[in-house]
Amino acid sequence: MYLERDERAGSAEGEHKSIEASLGRLEGLGLIERDPSIDIRWSREEERGSAARSSVLMRLVIVDRALDSDEVPDSALDLAVLKHLALIRAGFLAEPMRRDREVEDALSRYPGFDGTIGWMEDHGISL
């Protein structure tokens, strides 16, 4: 129902990258526990700019199709997925600063965070 309302949401299958593999890497690192109530999809088209967007209400993450490329390191996809899963898990917290701290904490535990952020910035992709 919600996916029909968000025309940006495309398939869960990528051409070059796998959201499922990203979830597996994040789970293997102990950074997430899978939540079947959260749907993660690629955007229908490249949007360039933000690596992903999410909706707490719809429990939906839409990853920019621009990350579905062999030229993009897996870590960039992982960070995009990790950030938006953390935002959804934080939910509608009354204190935005608390939500931001929870998201920053999740991201800071990702190995190679600084290098990946640098790569993303160099390529015009914001987390």
Structure description:
This protein has 127 residues and is mostly helical. The chain has a single domain, classed as Zincin-like (2-Layer Sandwich), CATH 3.30.2010. It has 5 helices and 3 strands. A 3-stranded mixed beta sheet has the order 1-3-2, covered by helices on one side. The longest helix has 17 residues, at 74-90. The radius of gyration is 14 Å and the shape is globular. It starts with a helix and ends in a 5-residue tail after the last helix. The relative contact order is 0.18.
**Tertiary shape:** globular
Strand order of the largest sheet: 1-3-2
Give the percentage of residues in beta strands.
Answer: 5-15%
Order of helices and strands: HHEEEHHH
Highest-level CATH class: Alpha Beta
Number of domains: 1
CATH fold description: Zincin-like
Cα(first) to Cα(last) distance is 27 Å
Weakly predicted, low-confidence segments: none
Could you give the count of β-strands?
3
Please sum up the structure shown.
The protein has a single domain (2-122), classed as Zincin-like, CATH 3.30.2010. By secondary structure, it is mainly α.
